[in-house]
């Protein structure tokens, strides 16, 4: 140390060292005086230009700028701050603040953290715009993909907002909102207006919209202490109420809440949330909502949809540029009318509850259109199971549905209905990549009892047996009705064996003598059905019969005709031939005409008139005894080849 020149100069400074120290102290004192006396307004222009270049927006500091650096919490005051909108929305600034007061903790800055000790905004106004293309006016980096993780703001220990205003113009969903913002500390322990408050009103597609969000005062906020909030959103026929907490204050990507939903149709939630759901009757659900970055989870929810209970879990996630929704749903007891609404029927609410109708009186097939643009906006999957079904005319006991949606193509597998006896199982594929979807369906019916279709008469079943069937159709159409009206494919129904009331079996062949006698006497005897086959080819929505045969022990009936799936009408003609000699047998086809929901049975009277004319001629030309031959059938019909007919229909 005795030989170190630096140490010697420090212990015994000479003139050069003294001059250097003096210059250093003078410069430090000069800088300090400069900062104390400096007018920060001189930097408003450079700061505005630097901020504008960094954000791509016009940032202006139109009022005084005051900075206070000499403190453990440096602070600044900015007056008349404005941030312009993007090029496509320059007609309105994104934000305007009359006065902004902010202070930060210096010690945290040394650690590389930004912690705002105090932030006060006086009369801030924020205008948010989303155009028809989905561009957001507040997005400073529109080219960066949105990961859906939510904003992360620095911790603000004390936040005060005076006379704030927020407006939203969401042009894709027709949503407009004008809200007042306020945040202040409690003036007293009983002060009910302290904390954060957002109250807004507006419209959505012309209908009223309201939003209210409240939270506790922003005082002594800590990173490890949850921040409680409540939210109430009502509009588009729906209402959402949430009560929960942000897990880490100012990290809006993480929170937990109890959520209650209610409204007239779950499909209306698309306007509020962007999540596609099927149409439903009025609903009321509640469960636990949580967010972890891009993942939203509505877990263990339960409630009612129409007259049915519903529970399960739903997850919404951001996968790249697309949203994905996955749901597992269960009903303990399903009202089949509620499911009809999901499949496209239009729910009609009455004072006694909720029922479903297709929207067109007297029609069978639902005609509500499928929103293809919504299906193209997301991916997802669905699993649904109904453990039991309330009493219904089809005698359905259980339901199971599965769905997978990806890139605008919806696959339904399985679509399964379990009856008291028998099942209907099938699959469907809906290509919604175009404005008019193209669908293909394949459904198989097995073991369904005829007693469930044809009502009993006189306390005894008219027909017994089990039906097998298949419908394989494809075509364009925005609804189930439109698909059927434009479809092509095949429809078949087979009854391998069964029994029929003898009276009706005889009447298939218009055996007036035996058939009427059995009906009038209340005869309950039955005849065997060897087989029944109905096989149709469908083109342009019209099903034309290839095979239509009902073979019983006493009569062989064969028919022809068409079923118009678009008009939902049928026009069938059945000719019966007896297998045994019969007296007073009228040769006249049976007709089945009219709407599918209520067809009418009749007799082709022109054939009866022709037969009567022949008989009259015989009576005139020969004798009355010979005329009776016109009503006698020798019964020459033979059994149908049931095996070949059934194989052909399948």
UniProtKB/TrEMBL annotation:
Name by which UniProt lists this protein: Uncharacterized protein involved in outer membrane biogenesis
A biological process from GO: regulation of protein targeting to membrane
Superkingdom of origin organism: Bacteria
Pfam families for the chain: AsmA (PF05170)
TM segment ranges: 20-40
Keywords linked to the UniProt accession: Membrane, Transmembrane, Transmembrane helix
InterPro entries: AsmA (IPR007844), AsmA-related (IPR052894)
Domain AsmA, chain residue ranges per copy: 21-175, 235-546
Gene Ontology terms: cellular component: plasma membrane
Keyword Flavoprotein applies: no
């Amino acid at each position: 140390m005795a030989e170190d020149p630096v140490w010697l100069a420090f212990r015994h400074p000479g003139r050069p060292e003294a001059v250097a120290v003096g210059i250093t102290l003078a410069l430090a004192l000069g800088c300090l005086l400069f900062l104390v006396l400096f007018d920060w307004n001189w930097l408003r222009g450079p700061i505005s230009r630097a901020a504008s270049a960094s954000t791509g927006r016009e940032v202006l500091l139109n009022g005084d700028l005051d900075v206070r650096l000499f403190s453990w919490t440096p602070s600044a005051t900015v007056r008349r701050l404005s941030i312009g909108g993007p090029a496509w929305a320059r007609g309105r600034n994104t934000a305007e603040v009359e006065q902004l007061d902010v202070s930060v903790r210096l010690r945290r800055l040394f650690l590389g953290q930004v912690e705002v000790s105090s932030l006060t905004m006086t009369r801030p106004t924020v205008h948010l715009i989303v155009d028809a293309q989905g561009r957001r006016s507040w997005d400073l980096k529109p080219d960066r993909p949105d990961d859906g993780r939510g904003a992360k703001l620095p911790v603000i220990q004390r936040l005060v907002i005076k006379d704030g205003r927020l407006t939203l113009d969401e042009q894709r969903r027709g949503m407009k909102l004008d809200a007042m913002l306020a945040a202040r500390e409690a003036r007293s322990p009983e002060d009910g207006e302290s904390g954060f408050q957002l109250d807004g009103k507006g419209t959505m597609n012309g209908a009223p919209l309201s939003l209210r969000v409240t939270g506790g005062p922003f005082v002594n906020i800590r990173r490890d202490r949850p921040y409680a909030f409540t939210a109430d959103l009502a509009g588009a026929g729906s209402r959402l109420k949430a009560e929960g907490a942000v897990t880490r204050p100012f990290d809006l990507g993480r929170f937990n809440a109890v959520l209650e939903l209610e409204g007239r149709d779950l499909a209306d939630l698309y306007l509020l949330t962007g999540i596609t759901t099927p149409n439903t009757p009025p609903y009321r659900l509640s469960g636990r909502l949580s967010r972890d970055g891009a993942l939203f989870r509505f877990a263990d929810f339960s409630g009612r949809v129409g007259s049915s209970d519903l529970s399960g879990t739903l997850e919404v996630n951001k996968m790249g540029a697309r949203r994905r929704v996955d749901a597992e749903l269960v009903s303990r007891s399903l009202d089949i009318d509620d499911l009809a609404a999901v499949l496209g029927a239009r729910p009609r609410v009455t004072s006694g509850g909720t029922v479903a109708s297709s929207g067109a009186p007297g029609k069978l097939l639902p005609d509500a259109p499928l929103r293809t643009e919504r299906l193209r906006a997301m991916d997802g999957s669905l699993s649904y199971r109904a453990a039991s079904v309330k009493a219904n005319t089809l005698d359905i006991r259980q339901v199971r549905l599965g769905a997978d949606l990806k890139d605008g193509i919806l696959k339904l597998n399985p679509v399964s209905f379990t009856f008291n006896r028998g099942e209907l199982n099938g699959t469907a594929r809906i290509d919604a990549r175009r404005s008019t979807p193209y669908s293909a369906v394949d459904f198989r019916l097995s073991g369904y009892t005829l007693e469930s279709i044809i009502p009993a008469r006189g306390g005894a079943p008219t027909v017994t047996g089990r039906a097998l069937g298949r419908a394989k159709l494809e075509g364009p159409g925005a609804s189930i009705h439109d698909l059927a009206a434009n479809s092509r494919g095949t429809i078949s129904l087979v009854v391998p064996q069964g029994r029929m009331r003898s009276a009706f079996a005889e009447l298939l062949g218009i055996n007036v003598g035996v058939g009427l006698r059995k009906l009038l006497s209340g005869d309950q005897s039955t005849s065997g059905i060897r087989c029944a086959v109905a096989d149709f080819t469908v083109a342009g929505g019209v099903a034309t019969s290839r095979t239509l045969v009902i073979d019983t022990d006493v009569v062989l009936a064969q028919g022809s005709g068409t079923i118009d799936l678009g008009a939902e009408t049928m026009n069938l003609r059945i000719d019966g031939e007896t297998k045994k000699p019969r007296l007073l047998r009228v040769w006249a086809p049976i007709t089945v005409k009219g709407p599918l929901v209520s067809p009418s049975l009749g007799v082709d009277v022109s054939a009866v008139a022709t037969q009567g004319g022949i008989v009259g001629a015989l009576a005139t030309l020969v004798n009355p005894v010979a005329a009776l031959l016109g009503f006698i059938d020798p019964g020459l019909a033979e059994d149908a080849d049931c095996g070949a007919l059934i194989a052909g229909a399948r």
